[in-house]
């Protein structure tokens, strides 16, 4: 049973369900376009995920029939979207709060799963690229559509998208600014799986449950390697850095428990040590 946390805002509901943090965009009346209150909730959720050892992963989803339409074009980049004093005060000390919220910078150190129903356009597809495992409904629609509005995708798509899918497909998405169906996104390798409408959160929870059954130290180390040991590193250097992450994992109590449980033919009981 998920319990709503005090860090929730009116546009971003944050819940804990066992070892899983569930983060729900909650501005359906505006197609879940970004607002200061949404960004505030997202920022707080990701920092909590980093800090709380009882949380092993997070699922990002949304209320309504649109996952996220990105920037609120009705107000524009400089429009007044009703920022609270709390948001303004926090932005004074964390000037990149919006980029942290949107997973462009300082991504949490644990796996992020995505459950998309409906349209995920512009910023909706950009935030997708900051997640690790992605589930979409069969009628979901993606697209980095900024060029169609004379805009530039500032959340990192020109950098990340070409690393996550083939260059020519990334160029097609970014330069045409057209919609991409769930099946196309699956074929491109942009998402992991397509499920019936209304089933994305359930499917993401099943995946999260499997992650939570694994050793948390091992999972965090794998996430760190996936994120940081990219193709700009020579293979030998990347392997050395990977070994540096592996050492503490193999020396942990969890590693001993995992091998003991395998020998004894029982589920492992990991403690994160």
Characterise the protein shown here.
- The protein is α/β, with parallel strands linked by helices and about 270 residues long.
- The chain folds into 2 domains: about 5-210, 2-enoyl-CoA Hydratase, Chain A, domain 1 (Alpha-Beta Complex); about 215-265.
- About 40% of the residues lie in helices and about 15% in strands.
- Helix 5 packs antiparallel against helix 6 (about 165-175) and helix 9 (about 215-230) runs antiparallel to helix 10 (about 235-250).
- The longest helix is centred in the N-terminal third of the chain and has 16 residues, at about 35-50.
Low-confidence stretches: none
Total discrete domains: 2
- Rounded to an integer in angstroms, the radius of gyration calculated over CA atoms is 19 Å
What pattern of helices and strands is seen along the backbone? EEEHEEHHEEHEEHHEHEHHHH
- The order of strands across the largest sheet is 1-2-3-4-6-8-11
**Mean pLDDT, all residues:** 94
For CATH, the homologous superfamily of the largest domain is named as 2-enoyl-CoA Hydratase, Chain A, domain 1
Give the class from helix and strand content and strand pairing. alpha/beta
Largest sheet: 7 strands, mixed
Strand portion = 15-25%
- For the record, the CATH class of the largest domain is Alpha Beta
Number of helices: 11
Number of strands: 11
Residue share in helices?
Answer: 40-55%
Q: What shape does the CA trace take?
A: globular
End-to-end gap = 26 Å
Q: Quickly give the CATH architecture of the largest domain.
A: Alpha-Beta Complex
CATH fold-level name of the largest domain: 2-enoyl-CoA Hydratase, Chain A, domain 1
Pfam families: ECH_1 (PF00378)
InterPro entries: ClpP/crotonase-like_dom_sf, Enoyl-CoA_hydra/iso, Enoyl-CoA_hydra_C
GO biological process, one term: fatty acid beta-oxidation
EC number: 4.2.1.17
């Amino acid at each position: 049973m998920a319990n709503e946390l005090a860090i929730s805002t009116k546009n971003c509901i944050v819940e804990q369900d066992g070892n899983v943090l569930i983060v729900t965009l909650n501005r359906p009346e505006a197609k879940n376009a970004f607002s200061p209150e949404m960004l505030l909730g997202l920022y707080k959720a990701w920092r909590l995920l980093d800090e709380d050892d009882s949380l092993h992963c997070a699922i990002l989803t949304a209320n309504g029939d649109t996952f996220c339409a990105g920037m609120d074009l009705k107000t524009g980049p400089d429009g007044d979207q009703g920022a609270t004093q709390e948001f303004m005060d926090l932005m004074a000390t964390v000037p990149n709060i919006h980029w942290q919220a949107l997973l462009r910078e300082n991504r949490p150190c644990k796996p992020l799963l995505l459950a998309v129903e409906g349209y995920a356009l512009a910023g909706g597809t950009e935030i997708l690229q900051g997640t690790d495992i992605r589930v979409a409904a069969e009628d979901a629609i993606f697209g980095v559509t900024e060029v169609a509005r004379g805009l530039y995708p500032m959340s990192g798509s020109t950098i990340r998208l070409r690393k996550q899918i083939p260059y020519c497909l990334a160029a097609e998405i970014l330069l045409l600014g057209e919609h991409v169906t769930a099946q196309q996104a699956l074929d491109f390798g942009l998402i992991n799986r397509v499920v019936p409408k209304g089933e994305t959160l359930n499917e993401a929870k099943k995946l999260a449950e499997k992650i939570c059954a694994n050793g948390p130290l091992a999972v965090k180390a794998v996430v760190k390697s996936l994120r940081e040991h990219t193709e700009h590193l020579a293979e030998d250097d990347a392997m050395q850095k990977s070994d540096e992450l592996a050492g503490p994992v193999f020396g942990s109590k969890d590693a001993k428990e995992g091998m003991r449980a395998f020998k004894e033919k029982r589920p492992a009981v990991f403690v994160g040590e």
